[in-house]
């Protein structure tokens, strides 16, 4: 089956005062119809830059190479008109902070209606009715009343639900959710994850879920791409990845993630020593080598490529034995 | 009897009409770690700020090692300053960017007019896993994890009896968070200070807290030994908190369904009557809407809960849906 979104050899370099900065290095992944792909990694790994580059949201200091195909249409290097017709309509975004994406001086209904009128050309009445439907779809109680609320009248969780309603207003093929629950409390997060799950089931929306939280990945993802220092280091089916992580970084991340009920007797959590490198250019070596407990000589002299199996790993000395996490 | 590092009695902190903290009672024994857990707006950080007297409480008392510091003025507070330190969530915001790391770490000692400050700074930096040369650097030259180590070094240089750690790892990446949590656990074991660990993340404190206190909308709803809180949480809110945090295991995570509490957090200006949690509680009954639940001791080990529905022996409703064993074992689709 053809993927809805196909990212191939995507590289992003920023021009900075200190010279070029490589943020994303030849990242490739596919997202199938109705599939949830989680892109997971820590600060600075390039996951958000990858997400923003998909629909051309990066500033002009960024140079983007490679290919992003949405349903067969190439987006990298596409003209402004093509991008404008795709953004919001075929690819929609939700971000961590809903308040920065909502206009404080208009009601949430007004903002959803505007999306519906601009992109789909609904008349005012139809758009109003559809806005209420959308608010119901994302689980906002008494939507008929809430449609007239201003963003500041809503709780953080409600605002994120409104953002999701706006994002899916045009029934996009791909929803890019960049840390959608990171700013929310856990009891609120659970509800938002439920909404995203519902969208995939009811509307068949493909979702690219950008997150640092392996618990969120475990909850929602079908497949996972683990990023480190601008590269995808491992990608696999979610069950396979958690049961048989092969990249030492993935293993380290899993072991470092605390989970209630699992550390009662533990004296310490597992750490990953060292720091994420800041790269002016991508070296011909594994970028994780100097933090890796399994590093070989090869790792510092040659860059490992992703293997070709369904469970793909970029590592010269992958973990094959069962791991205890 | 063990001596107490901290006694907080019926603490109240109101900001105008906002009732941020409304009657919190908490004790920390010398050398033990209490985790104060709650979500945004629960008032947990305000409790921390009252304890280190960044705020003067509206009511109640705060005793540090037996001394009542609730309403002491600046001058009379000074002798008690060395007894308690605080570490904040955002090290970038709490370290003066114009000072060198050495000046930042040594500042508490300078205020106490101590001698040999630079030797103590080196020692304190070494203790938190930083090289003494870091003293010459500016905070912005350090990574987030290193900055948090600097905050910890500053907090511990006066050898306080009590460390208040307010979300010390929330702004950090998972791998760095683990290192800072380990460091705090090691230091606590070696130096023996008492610690109030304020966090929104129950899972982060499981292995370092001796006791856990859970806060909701300005009040404690449950507190007790760690094993009791994690093993047999009695309050529906504690149960919901535990069930809501997703576990990093797809098969297990998909078998469990979180308790959905709804998004509308009541306001601390006009908290709900009766039990403050009743508007979001899945098992609330009429009594909960009108009568404020008393704090009661249930079972052993000082496990306390404020809920009408929990029996004196600790039994009561469990709002967490039960996943059957077969669902837990089968990978793949989520539970119906």
From TrEMBL, chain A:
It holds the Pfam family ABC_tran. GO terms for cellular component: plasma membrane. It is a peripheral membrane protein. Residues 7-254 form the ABC transporter domain. SMART domains: AAA. It is found in: Cell membrane. GO terms for biological process: peptide transport. GO terms for molecular function: ATP binding; ATP hydrolysis activity. Keywords: ATP-binding, Cell membrane, Membrane, Nucleotide-binding, Transport. InterPro entries: AAA+_ATPase (IPR003593), ABC_Ni/Peptide_Import (IPR050388), ABC_transporter-like_ATP-bd (IPR003439), ABC_transporter-like_CS (IPR017871), Oligopep_ABC_C (IPR013563), P-loop_NTPase (IPR027417). It comes from the Bacteria. Belongs to the ABC transporter superfamily. PANTHER family: DIPEPTIDE TRANSPORT ATP-BINDING PROTEIN DPPD (PTHR43297:SF2), OLIGOPEPTIDE TRANSPORT ATP-BINDING PROTEIN APPD (PTHR43297). This is ABC transporter ATP-binding protein. It comes from Kribbella sindirgiensis.
Automatic annotation (TrEMBL), chain B:
Residues 311-336 are annotated as: Disordered. Coiled coil: none annotated. GO terms for biological process: peptide transport; transmembrane transport. The keyword DNA-binding does not apply. One of its GO terms (molecular function) is ATP binding. CDD domains: ABC_NikE_OppD_transporters. Signal peptide: none annotated. Residues 6-242 form the ABC transporter domain. Pfam families: ABC_tran (PF00005), oligo_HPY (PF08352). Keywords: ATP-binding, Nucleotide-binding, Transport. Transmembrane segments: none annotated. PANTHER family: D,D-DIPEPTIDE TRANSPORT ATP-BINDING PROTEIN DDPF-RELATED, TRANSPORT ATP-BINDING PROTEIN. Belongs to the ABC transporter superfamily. NCBIfam families: oligo_HPY (TIGR01727). This is ABC transporter ATP-binding protein. It comes from Kribbella sindirgiensis.
